[in-house]
Amino acid sequence: xxxxxxxxxxxxxxxxxxxxxxxxxxxxxxxxxxxxxxxxxxxxxxxxxxxxxxxxxxxxxxxxxxxxxxxxxxxxxxxxxxxxxxxxxxxxxxxxxxxxxxxxxxxxxxxxxxxxxxxxxxxxxxxxxxxxxxxxxxxxxxxxxxxxxxxxxxxxxxxxxxxxxxxxxxxxxxxxxxxxxxxxxxxxxxxxx
Amino acid sequence: xxxxxxxxxxxxxxxxxxxxxxxxxxxxxxxxxxxxxxxxxxxxxxxxxxxxxxxxxxxxxxxxxxxxxxxxxxxxxxx
Lengths: 193, 79
Fold this sequence. Notes:
The complex is a heterodimer of chains A (193) and B (79).
Chain A: H1 5-13, H2 17-39, H3 42-58, H4 69-87, H5 95-101, H6 124-135, H7 139-150, H8 155-162, H9 166-190
Chain B: H1 3-14, H2 20-32, H3 34-53, H4 62-78
Protein backbone atom coordinates (compact mmCIF):
# COMPACT_ATOMS: atom_id res chain seq x y z
CA UNK A 1 0.00 0.00 0.00
CA UNK A 2 1.44 3.35 -0.92
CA UNK A 3 1.53 6.04 1.76
CA UNK A 4 0.21 9.56 1.28
CA UNK A 5 2.56 12.52 1.09
CA UNK A 6 1.52 13.66 4.59
CA UNK A 7 2.20 10.20 6.04
CA UNK A 8 5.61 10.05 4.38
CA UNK A 9 6.50 13.52 5.67
CA UNK A 10 5.51 12.52 9.20
CA UNK A 11 7.59 9.35 9.01
CA UNK A 12 10.56 11.24 7.56
CA UNK A 13 10.33 13.79 10.37
CA UNK A 14 10.47 10.91 12.84
CA UNK A 15 13.77 9.78 11.33
CA UNK A 16 12.60 7.32 8.66
CA UNK A 17 15.08 7.97 5.85
CA UNK A 18 13.37 5.50 3.51
CA UNK A 19 10.19 7.61 3.77
CA UNK A 20 12.22 10.71 2.93
CA UNK A 21 13.66 8.96 -0.13
CA UNK A 22 10.14 8.00 -1.22
CA UNK A 23 9.26 11.70 -1.19
CA UNK A 24 12.33 12.51 -3.26
CA UNK A 25 11.61 9.67 -5.68
CA UNK A 26 8.12 11.05 -6.32
CA UNK A 27 9.46 14.51 -7.18
CA UNK A 28 12.96 14.00 -8.58
CA UNK A 29 12.01 13.93 -12.28
CA UNK A 30 10.00 17.14 -12.06
CA UNK A 31 12.68 18.94 -10.04
CA UNK A 32 15.44 17.91 -12.46
CA UNK A 33 13.39 19.03 -15.48
CA UNK A 34 12.58 22.34 -13.83
CA UNK A 35 16.32 22.76 -13.25
CA UNK A 36 17.02 22.06 -16.93
CA UNK A 37 14.49 24.65 -18.04
CA UNK A 38 15.70 27.31 -15.65
CA UNK A 39 19.43 26.74 -15.96
CA UNK A 40 19.74 25.24 -19.48
CA UNK A 41 22.67 23.11 -18.39
CA UNK A 42 22.67 19.41 -17.38
CA UNK A 43 25.42 19.78 -14.81
CA UNK A 44 23.68 22.68 -13.06
CA UNK A 45 20.36 20.83 -13.15
CA UNK A 46 22.07 17.84 -11.47
CA UNK A 47 23.51 20.19 -8.81
CA UNK A 48 20.06 21.71 -8.32
CA UNK A 49 18.55 18.26 -7.72
CA UNK A 50 21.26 17.29 -5.27
CA UNK A 51 21.05 20.59 -3.35
CA UNK A 52 17.27 20.34 -3.19
CA UNK A 53 17.53 16.84 -1.66
CA UNK A 54 20.06 17.97 0.94
CA UNK A 55 18.35 21.26 1.85
CA UNK A 56 14.99 19.51 2.14
CA UNK A 57 16.53 16.89 4.43
CA UNK A 58 18.32 19.45 6.59
CA UNK A 59 15.25 21.69 6.92
CA UNK A 60 12.54 19.05 7.06
CA UNK A 61 11.48 20.08 10.56
CA UNK A 62 10.76 23.60 9.27
CA UNK A 63 8.19 22.24 6.84
CA UNK A 64 4.88 22.96 8.57
CA UNK A 65 2.58 21.39 6.01
CA UNK A 66 0.86 24.70 5.16
CA UNK A 67 1.52 24.01 1.47
CA UNK A 68 1.99 20.75 -0.42
CA UNK A 69 5.38 19.13 0.15
CA UNK A 70 6.08 19.39 -3.60
CA UNK A 71 5.46 23.18 -3.43
CA UNK A 72 8.03 23.41 -0.66
CA UNK A 73 10.52 21.40 -2.75
CA UNK A 74 9.90 23.66 -5.75
CA UNK A 75 10.63 26.65 -3.51
CA UNK A 76 14.00 25.18 -2.49
CA UNK A 77 14.80 24.31 -6.12
CA UNK A 78 13.85 27.74 -7.53
CA UNK A 79 15.83 29.52 -4.80
CA UNK A 80 18.88 27.51 -5.83
CA UNK A 81 18.22 28.28 -9.51
CA UNK A 82 17.79 32.00 -8.78
CA UNK A 83 21.12 32.06 -6.98
CA UNK A 84 22.83 30.33 -9.94
CA UNK A 85 21.13 32.62 -12.46
CA UNK A 86 22.16 35.74 -10.56
CA UNK A 87 25.76 34.56 -10.60
CA UNK A 88 25.49 34.41 -14.41
CA UNK A 89 24.06 37.95 -14.58
CA UNK A 90 25.89 38.79 -17.80
CA UNK A 91 23.97 36.15 -19.77
CA UNK A 92 20.58 37.79 -19.13
CA UNK A 93 19.17 40.88 -20.75
CA UNK A 94 19.21 43.84 -18.32
CA UNK A 95 16.07 44.60 -16.34
CA UNK A 96 15.91 48.05 -17.97
CA UNK A 97 16.01 46.63 -21.52
CA UNK A 98 13.45 43.98 -20.66
CA UNK A 99 11.07 46.45 -19.05
CA UNK A 100 11.54 48.90 -21.92
CA UNK A 101 10.72 46.23 -24.50
CA UNK A 102 7.65 45.04 -22.65
CA UNK A 103 6.26 48.55 -22.17
CA UNK A 104 2.67 49.08 -23.23
CA UNK A 105 2.17 50.51 -26.70
CA UNK A 106 -1.14 52.06 -27.46
CA UNK A 107 -0.49 53.99 -30.62
CA UNK A 108 1.60 51.55 -32.54
CA UNK A 109 0.47 49.21 -35.28
CA UNK A 110 0.64 45.61 -34.09
CA UNK A 111 1.51 43.00 -36.64
CA UNK A 112 -0.63 39.85 -36.34
CA UNK A 113 1.72 37.00 -37.21
CA UNK A 114 -0.21 34.36 -35.25
CA UNK A 115 -1.43 32.67 -38.46
CA UNK A 116 1.88 33.01 -40.28
CA UNK A 117 2.74 29.58 -41.78
CA UNK A 118 6.27 29.92 -40.30
CA UNK A 119 4.98 30.42 -36.75
CA UNK A 120 5.70 26.87 -35.56
CA UNK A 121 8.59 25.10 -33.92
CA UNK A 122 9.59 23.09 -36.99
CA UNK A 123 10.97 26.46 -38.02
CA UNK A 124 14.38 25.97 -36.38
CA UNK A 125 15.29 29.63 -36.69
CA UNK A 126 12.20 30.65 -34.74
CA UNK A 127 12.68 27.88 -32.18
CA UNK A 128 16.25 28.97 -31.48
CA UNK A 129 15.24 32.61 -31.26
CA UNK A 130 12.47 31.90 -28.77
CA UNK A 131 14.64 29.58 -26.69
CA UNK A 132 17.36 32.23 -26.53
CA UNK A 133 14.81 34.92 -25.61
CA UNK A 134 13.39 32.83 -22.73
CA UNK A 135 16.91 32.01 -21.56
CA UNK A 136 17.85 35.70 -21.62
CA UNK A 137 14.92 36.81 -19.42
CA UNK A 138 16.13 38.38 -16.16
CA UNK A 139 16.03 35.69 -13.41
CA UNK A 140 13.05 37.10 -11.52
CA UNK A 141 10.97 37.09 -14.72
CA UNK A 142 12.27 33.80 -16.04
CA UNK A 143 11.34 31.81 -12.90
CA UNK A 144 7.78 33.18 -12.94
CA UNK A 145 7.33 32.67 -16.69
CA UNK A 146 8.65 29.10 -16.62
CA UNK A 147 6.63 28.10 -13.56
CA UNK A 148 3.39 29.59 -14.91
CA UNK A 149 3.45 29.47 -18.70
CA UNK A 150 5.67 26.45 -19.23
CA UNK A 151 5.15 24.24 -16.16
CA UNK A 152 1.50 25.28 -15.99
CA UNK A 153 1.29 26.23 -12.30
CA UNK A 154 -1.59 28.59 -11.48
CA UNK A 155 -0.72 32.14 -10.37
CA UNK A 156 -1.58 31.36 -6.71
CA UNK A 157 0.80 28.39 -6.68
CA UNK A 158 3.63 30.42 -8.25
CA UNK A 159 3.07 33.10 -5.64
CA UNK A 160 3.35 30.41 -2.94
CA UNK A 161 6.49 28.84 -4.44
CA UNK A 162 8.28 32.17 -4.82
CA UNK A 163 6.81 33.90 -1.75
CA UNK A 164 5.60 36.75 -3.96
CA UNK A 165 2.30 38.60 -3.93
CA UNK A 166 -0.24 37.65 -6.60
CA UNK A 167 -0.06 41.12 -8.27
CA UNK A 168 3.74 40.81 -8.45
CA UNK A 169 3.46 37.39 -10.11
CA UNK A 170 0.91 38.73 -12.61
CA UNK A 171 3.06 41.73 -13.49
CA UNK A 172 6.06 39.52 -14.17
CA UNK A 173 4.04 37.09 -16.30
CA UNK A 174 2.55 39.99 -18.26
CA UNK A 175 5.91 41.67 -18.94
CA UNK A 176 7.60 38.38 -19.86
CA UNK A 177 4.87 37.57 -22.35
CA UNK A 178 5.03 41.02 -23.94
CA UNK A 179 8.83 40.91 -24.09
CA UNK A 180 8.87 37.48 -25.79
CA UNK A 181 6.06 38.50 -28.13
CA UNK A 182 8.07 41.56 -29.12
CA UNK A 183 11.09 39.36 -29.94
CA UNK A 184 8.97 37.15 -32.19
CA UNK A 185 7.27 40.18 -33.76
CA UNK A 186 10.63 41.60 -34.78
CA UNK A 187 11.51 38.29 -36.39
CA UNK A 188 8.29 38.25 -38.45
CA UNK A 189 8.68 41.92 -39.29
CA UNK A 190 12.18 41.29 -40.64
CA UNK A 191 10.86 38.32 -42.61
CA UNK A 192 8.07 40.52 -44.01
CA UNK A 193 5.44 38.51 -42.04
CA UNK B 1 -13.03 49.85 -22.35
CA UNK B 2 -9.95 51.59 -23.78
CA UNK B 3 -6.80 49.95 -25.14
CA UNK B 4 -4.96 50.66 -21.85
CA UNK B 5 -7.68 48.81 -19.90
CA UNK B 6 -7.66 46.00 -22.42
CA UNK B 7 -3.90 45.59 -22.01
CA UNK B 8 -4.31 45.48 -18.24
CA UNK B 9 -6.88 42.67 -18.59
CA UNK B 10 -4.89 40.68 -21.13
CA UNK B 11 -3.15 38.37 -18.65
CA UNK B 12 -6.31 37.58 -16.70
CA UNK B 13 -8.26 36.98 -19.90
CA UNK B 14 -5.67 34.49 -21.16
CA UNK B 15 -5.65 32.77 -17.76
CA UNK B 16 -9.47 32.78 -17.68
CA UNK B 17 -9.54 34.87 -14.53
CA UNK B 18 -11.75 37.76 -15.64
CA UNK B 19 -15.19 38.17 -14.11
CA UNK B 20 -18.11 37.88 -16.55
CA UNK B 21 -18.75 41.62 -16.85
CA UNK B 22 -15.13 42.58 -17.46
CA UNK B 23 -14.75 39.75 -19.93
CA UNK B 24 -17.74 40.94 -21.90
CA UNK B 25 -16.32 44.53 -22.01
CA UNK B 26 -12.94 43.08 -23.02
CA UNK B 27 -14.45 41.06 -25.88
CA UNK B 28 -16.53 44.02 -27.00
CA UNK B 29 -13.40 46.15 -27.17
CA UNK B 30 -11.66 43.46 -29.24
CA UNK B 31 -14.47 43.53 -31.79
CA UNK B 32 -13.79 47.20 -32.37
CA UNK B 33 -10.02 47.22 -32.05
CA UNK B 34 -7.80 45.30 -34.51
CA UNK B 35 -4.65 46.40 -32.62
CA UNK B 36 -5.69 44.78 -29.34
CA UNK B 37 -6.97 41.73 -31.23
CA UNK B 38 -3.59 41.33 -32.92
CA UNK B 39 -1.88 41.77 -29.57
CA UNK B 40 -4.03 39.08 -27.95
CA UNK B 41 -3.51 36.61 -30.82
CA UNK B 42 0.26 37.08 -30.87
CA UNK B 43 0.61 36.84 -27.07
CA UNK B 44 -1.45 33.63 -27.11
CA UNK B 45 0.71 32.26 -29.91
CA UNK B 46 3.89 33.21 -27.99
CA UNK B 47 2.64 31.20 -25.00
CA UNK B 48 1.73 28.19 -27.16
CA UNK B 49 5.16 28.22 -28.82
CA UNK B 50 6.97 28.65 -25.48
CA UNK B 51 5.02 25.79 -23.92
CA UNK B 52 5.87 23.51 -26.84
CA UNK B 53 9.59 24.16 -26.71
CA UNK B 54 10.30 21.96 -23.68
CA UNK B 55 7.15 19.86 -23.65
CA UNK B 56 9.01 16.56 -23.55
CA UNK B 57 10.27 15.49 -20.14
CA UNK B 58 13.99 14.70 -20.14
CA UNK B 59 14.70 11.35 -18.44
CA UNK B 60 16.74 11.71 -15.29
CA UNK B 61 20.17 10.11 -15.93
CA UNK B 62 21.04 7.21 -13.56
CA UNK B 63 24.40 8.79 -12.82
CA UNK B 64 22.69 11.95 -11.57
CA UNK B 65 20.28 9.95 -9.36
CA UNK B 66 23.11 7.86 -7.89
CA UNK B 67 25.19 10.92 -7.06
CA UNK B 68 22.26 12.82 -5.52
CA UNK B 69 21.33 9.91 -3.21
CA UNK B 70 24.98 9.26 -2.35
CA UNK B 71 25.40 12.89 -1.24
CA UNK B 72 22.10 12.79 0.63
CA UNK B 73 23.10 9.66 2.56
CA UNK B 74 26.31 11.34 3.72
CA UNK B 75 24.02 13.85 5.48
CA UNK B 76 22.04 11.04 7.18
CA UNK B 77 25.16 10.10 9.07
CA UNK B 78 25.74 13.69 10.15
CA UNK B 79 22.28 14.10 11.66
